[in-house]
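Hi everyone,

Forwarding the result from last night's run.
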Amino acid sequence: MEVRAATPDDQEAVMEIAERSLEASYTLSPQTIEGTVHQWYDEAEYTEKVDREDMLFLLAEHEGEAVAFTETVIHDDETGADLLWLHVHPDYRGEGIGSDLFDAVRDRLHDRDITQLRGRVLSMNEVGNTFYKQRGFEKVGEGEVEIDGSPYTEALYLEAEPEGLEPRTTDDGQTVYIDHDDVDEGSAGPFHVVYVDEAREEKYGYHCGKCDSLANAMDAMGRIECGECGNSRKPTRWDAAYM
């Protein structure tokens, strides 16, 4: 996969990706999606966006074909930015393209000494919200975006401050370390990876943030389930279906 800055010549590809992505991710009417895509990415609007100094518009290509893009606006003080949209064509989801493109956005921002990234995703998009939570972001509020003339609620996410390792003594007297920076979102609370050493070289298991218990195992599909309270994490293959 190659990531590059979008150009005016990519306008038709961007419209196609946005339309297909919205169809796959949201329960919006075809008329609403079509109107929104034309409102945001018609030739004049799109060209203005890719030429703006305060806009980071990245395009991902797979074997020469445009398959995903991000739209990020940089704050006036140039210390932070808002990731407005991350769209992956449905035919290319599940290959890690969205995650790689997200990382590319952060790298480009860091190159410009922009360290704070705020994510915006429609509240109705469950998988999109999970995407941010699994990357250590916390919901900090809500906003509103207009789509084809109607208001929709957005969830706002900021990267949580690192909490580091928390030592914990098991029932058999062993000291293990809960990594609060390595979080997986569960059905009723977060899961944290637990290590047997401070160097994070050997895993012990998982810590359930719902009931504060240890030793939750992961099966071959990547599913985690707490034996104490039933908190569970869906298989990783399900997570990969979006990004």
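The first helix runs from residue 11 to 25.

Cheers,
N.
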